Amino acid sequence: MYRELADILRRELAEYRAGDFLPGEVLLAERFGVNRHTLRRAIDELVFEGSLLRRQGKGTQVLERPLIYSMTADSAYSQSLSAQGLGVEAVLLKRRYCFASREEAQHLGIAEMAPMIELQTLRKLDQQPVSLIRHRYCASHAPLLADYNGGSLRQYLRERDMPLTRTQSLIGARLPNREEAALLLMPRHLPALTVFTLSRDNDGHAVELAQSTSRSDRFQYQVVT
Hints:
This protein is α+β, with helices and mostly antiparallel strands. 28% of the residues lie in helices and 36% in strands. It has helices at residues 2-12, 25-32, 36-48, 77-82, 102-108, 142-145, 153-158, 178-184; strands at 52-55, 59-62, 67-71, 88-99, 115-125, 128-138, 165-174, 192-200, 206-215, 219-223. The protein has a six-stranded antiparallel beta sheet. A two-stranded antiparallel ribbon has the order 1-2. It comes from Pseudomonas vancouverensis.
């Protein structure tokens, strides 16, 4: 019975907008003539597949369908998704100094344990969080990044005569940690998409290492060659 009920609810989700909340469990149980245990199992099915999200103290929220981001050498996250009519926002969460690991040093052509600056941003689409991105640069670029307080980093650097080109991307998937799940408003059993990206300037110098973590139910990557 709960599977049949899940199918009904799945079809009805087309009538909701992303961010809407379902009616309360008591009301839904009365409407379908089932007990709350059966209703919860039906909702659990949709939560597990990423269509719904339980938010403690608020209810059950409807999630957006996956969006497609076309990855090319010079594509910019904000520009690409804005072109689809979406409201794109990049919030600066953290700015900190760190040291290059051996792998990072090899990618950027700097010494291991060389000082680096890291910017952590949260990307929102139509006010819904979808991606966390950790951008790392050699600390020598800190003065250039000093005025960055949010928005497209690609655009920020382009306006300062440092356009970047993506030269390597590695796509993977894993479960989110507790902090990532909280910031992205996603269940911890749902895999997150990860992308490691190396970008270079016009002279071919490696400038940026970026590691993004995105909701797999909200995001699809299309690799364009």
